Amino acid sequence: QFLAATGSAFFSAAIDVDGKVVLWGGTALPGADFAAIIGIGSPPGKFTAIAARGRYIIALSEDGRIYGWGVDPGTLMGQPEGAFRSWARDQHGYMIAPAAAGGHPYTAIAAGLDHVEALSADGSVAIWKGPTNLIPDPPGIAFTKTAAGARFGAGIDQAGHIHVWADPTLPAAGVLTAVPPGCYSDISAAT
């Protein structure tokens, strides 16, 4: 039985009832990528959320830390450095995101094509991206949900309104940011 599940074109991952990350698939990945995702195994600890995109995974621990492993998402897009460049590596080889501003724990995560987003307990959204990624930072307002897509991010504010931050060179940037008015309670994004 699983509490949460995710997947990419190459592998699947889930959190079991004990909070452990379970990985499977990945046989179509190149050898080094397979070793970095499936071969490394699962990080220690208990987890509450998991997200994957392409050749990387992020997982949210029950104490609000974010672990990442696999191929850095920004480097997959030809960037010299990627989203994990400011993350610390632990003794097991996993990347760990910097603490949220104000010391608040993270409460939700989202895996974008070439960036990572996280929602902290105070409603702020952190974004990690490669230096050539043109996605702007999220608005400085409190959010209740966040989502990450291909070169864009989105969130729901406390009033239920959707906000989108998109790479301005993206052909659909205007369409993405023209959200119909309304009161929303959930959000997701796709590549």
Task: Write a concise keyword list for the protein shown above.
191 residues, mainly beta, five-stranded antiparallel β-sheet, 3 helices, 14 strands, globular
What report would you give on this structure?
The protein is globular. 9% of the residues lie in helices and 38% in strands. The model has no long low-confidence stretch (mean pLDDT 85). A hairpin with a 4-residue loop joins strand 5 and strand 6. The chain has 191 residues and is mainly β.
Low-confidence stretches: none
| Strand adjacency order, main sheet | 4-5-6-8-7
Ends apart, CA distance between termini:
28 Å
Determine Rg (CA atoms, Å): 16 Å
Question: What average pLDDT do the residues reach?
Answer: 85
Query: What is the succession of H and E elements?
Result: EEEHEEEHEEEEEEEEH
Proportion in helices: under 10%
Structural class: mainly beta
The multimeric state of the shown protein is single chain
Query: Which geometry do the CA atoms define?
Result: globular
Give the biggest sheet.
5 strands, antiparallel
Counted beta strands: 14
Beta-strand content = 35-45%
Brief sketch in words of this structure:
It is built from 3 helices and 14 strands. It is mostly beta strands and 191 residues long.
Topology:
Layout lengths: L1 E6 L3 E6 L4 E5 L5 H9 L7 E7 L2 E6 L4 E5 L2 H4 L11 E2 L5 E2 L9 E6 L3 E6 L4 E5 L13 E6 L3 E6 L4 E5 L6 H5 L14
Antiparallel strand pairs: 1-2, 2-3, 4-5, 5-6, 6-8, 7-8, 9-10, 10-11, 12-13, 13-14
